[in-house]
Give the backbone structure.
Amino acid sequence: MLLTPHILLGAAIGAKISNPGAIFALSFISHYFLDALPHYEYKIPGLKGKSPDNKKIFIDFLKLSVDLSIGAGLALFFLWNSPFLTGAVLGMLSALIPDALLFLYWRHPESRFLKIFALPHRACHFLKNSSPAWLSLSTEVIIGFVIISYLAYAI
């Protein structure tokens, strides 16, 4: 799944819950729930270690940076003057941790600790390859729209 829906859902969780431990746990777990839905993913072979080509690594980081900027920018736009900003930022960061751990696992596949997080992450993607492209991308658009609507009107 793109990073933007994860960031937006983490922000929404953080803006609604006051307990930092609960924000962390729910945002972290929400990542796996979103990944269980049919979704689109862009290819990042340079970051998966399958290409030592610096140009591919740069392009992959550029893709992630744009995605991260869109998600964080949207969330911060709606929450910047909110008293819930700190919780929202915690939720945003917590929702991204599973992907960060997966990236570390790609770099260090021998790590048993990182494998604990990589296996469920892989298992959550069971619908990714079995869904038509239009369904995968439309799922992300709908999720994004619903969360943005929530952030715009409920907070």
Summary: The chain has a mean pLDDT of 89. The first helix runs from residue 3 to 16.
